[in-house]
Amino acid sequence: MPAPTTAPPAKTPRAPRKTDGREAILRAAERLFAEHGFEGCSLRAVADLAKVNQGMIHYFFKSKDALFLETYMRGGQPLVDERMRLLDAEEALQEGRPIGLERLIEIFLTPAVTLALSGARGRNFLRMQAHLQLDGTRFGSKLRSSLYDDSSRRFVRAFARSLPGLSQEQVAWRFIFVLGTYQYVLADTGRLEVISDGASNGREFDKALREMIPFLAAGMRAAGPA
Known about the structure:
Blueprint: H1 18-40, H2 43-50, H3 54-61, H4 64-94, H5 101-117, H6 120-133, H7 138-162, H8 168-186, H9 191-195, H10 205-221
């Protein structure tokens, strides 16, 4: 007669950890900052969405500024790092020659488009980024400067090498036009669907990349004002 088998002991459910609450707060903040911007998002709303008490937000982050900063940097720092990795690799490949303009634009835009294609969290970051560009506060200016200044200057220098007929001022202006274009396109506002009477889908971000590259290259190459 076979020996009776003993059922394995039931697994004890894992008790929630404080880090679970921290991650829930960050995810809730990411969504609400994307929808409402820094000023329009309250810590109470974040706590309600994360299903934690507001004191836990203060425990982990101390302030709304610190919560926004960490939430933003989760998307912003990898974006900048990937841009710089691609630029470094292409400059090494070119061995001192200027990078082709379309390729340079592609390098700059691709990490952001990849974020948009990655799902809701990536799109939330890009909407936060769009809100941040309109933030005229000292906090917003300091965050933009600390995260983007070095990489932006690198790209402006690369564009200047690719466009030797333009002045430094013209290259800087046109780089700002690149920023404005891609940030609006990837902010997922729904406007494309409206003005195309439903013929276009604004979430076809890979298609948006293919459309933006020649459009922006033509604008970058255009003659200056008379």
